[in-house]
Structures are given as C-alpha cells and as structure tokens.
Specification:
Elements: H1 5-10, H2 12-17, H3 23-34, H4 40-44, E1 54-57, H5 63-66, E2 78-81, H6 82-85, H7 92-102, E3 110-113, H8 119-125, E4 129-133, E5 144-146
C-alpha cells in the first residue's frame, strides 16, 4: 500500500481525536518519518495551461476549514472533500463532482493516489486512468506505478 499509508494510519486515532495538533503538522510528521518531500514548488510544476488539478479527499471535519490557508490550496482548481458530500471514496459522486468542477470527462482524467479506501478501483470503475503513487526511490525513478490493483 505504500510506505506513507501505514504511518499515516498509525496517527489516525489521534487525528480523529484532535490530540496531535494541526493537520499540517500531522501530515508533515508522517512525511518526515518516511522521507517524502513534496513542496508547493514541485506541485506548481504540474500546473500547465489546459491542465486542471483537483483534490479528492476523505477527510475529517477541520480539513475543509484549514485547506484554504495551506500552501497547496492555490495549486488546485477545485477540491472535493468527503465531509462536504457525506460520502467516502470510492463513491462515484466524489470523482464525478471533481470532473464536473473541472469541466472534463473520464477520458480526460488521470487519478493519482496512495491507494487507500479502494480509491484507485473506484476511479477505474468510472473509466478514469488510475495511477498508484508509490514510495519514492532516492532517484525518484519509481514514483508511480500503473494499474496497481488493491
């Protein structure tokens, strides 16, 4: 499932109880544990004319509130938070909302994720190309794998 997923889930109970402080701090802590670095500058390189980027996230109640203040918020044209739709991935409504907001169809999309919540399968079932965000090697040569089955 990836080196990030297990440490992330290990703090899940504390995240849901709010005992670990901010969401940004918790994300940073787990990223540090597994040696992942992803900067706003790296994300900015993905933004090109004609390419829309959406965030589809299963999240706790505070995420939609704190999201606009994060350095990543301006990099996404739209966000779809499970909390706001009352559904979790792989519910089709989440993917459909993102596509509608971006004005695209399934064949125009690429879904990149860590593979939790059967999200890759959910995307594929809608006809969306789905890529597994793999653990990063030191030379960044194996960041994504195609068609990983959960």
């Amino acid at each position: 499932m990836g080196e990030f997923f297990e440490p992330w889930m290990s703090v899940n109970d504390d995240r849901l109880k709010g005992t670990n402080g901010s969401s940004e701090g918790e994300i940073g802590q787990v990223m540090d544990w597994v040696g992942i670095t992803l900067s706003a500058k790296q994300m900015q390189q993905l933004k090109k004319p004609g390419i829309g980027i959406a965030l589809v996230s299963d999240c706790v109640i505070e995420m939609p509130v704190v999201w606009p203040s994060t350095p990543f918020a301006p990099l996404f044209e739209t966000t779809v938070f499970s909390r706001e739709l009352g559904a979790r991935k792989p519910d089709a409504h989440l993917y459909e909302r993102a596509m509608k907001s971006l004005g695209v169809t399934q064949s125009d999309c690429l879904f990149v994720a860590d593979g939790g919540s059967n999200e890759l399968k959910g995307a594929r079932e809608l006809g969306i190309a789905a890529y597994f965000l793999d653990d990063q090697s030191a030379d960044l040569s194996t960041v994504m794998r195609v068609d990983v089955h959960e």
